[in-house]
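User: Please predict the structure of the protein below. I'd like the answer in structure-token form so I can feed it into my own downstream comparison script.

Assistant: Understood. Taking the following sequence of 132 residues as input:
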Amino acid sequence: MRQNKYTDQAQTVLGFIEFLGLAVITVATVIAGIIEVNVMVDARNVTLADLLLMFLYLEILAMVSVYFSSGKLPVRFPIYIAIVALARYLVLDIKNLDHWHMIGVATSILLLTLAVLAIRYGHIKYSYGDKE
């Protein structure tokens, strides 16, 4: 199907906006990572919460990298980020959480993990192949 010139122009503009958004996310993530490293150096202490936060930043950068290289965003990446964010929340606030809240967060992590497994299984079992 032939696209008209307005569709081509709209795709060009949207592609530029998408590129700009990804660039802003990348720069903001790198800056946040540098700030976090400075906080750890100044405190002369690295905690599990710090490491999990660094993993969050790395996952965001990996997600942007995959998107730049393939033009697609695997749904697994945001789920990985959510799992790490929930784990970090659990680690940071474990003293302030009641039992039900901890069970809720842990159950959320388990459900997200099962979602990743289901997605991976679906990709392997019911692969798209070269069609798209």
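That's the full token string. The mean pLDDT is 89.
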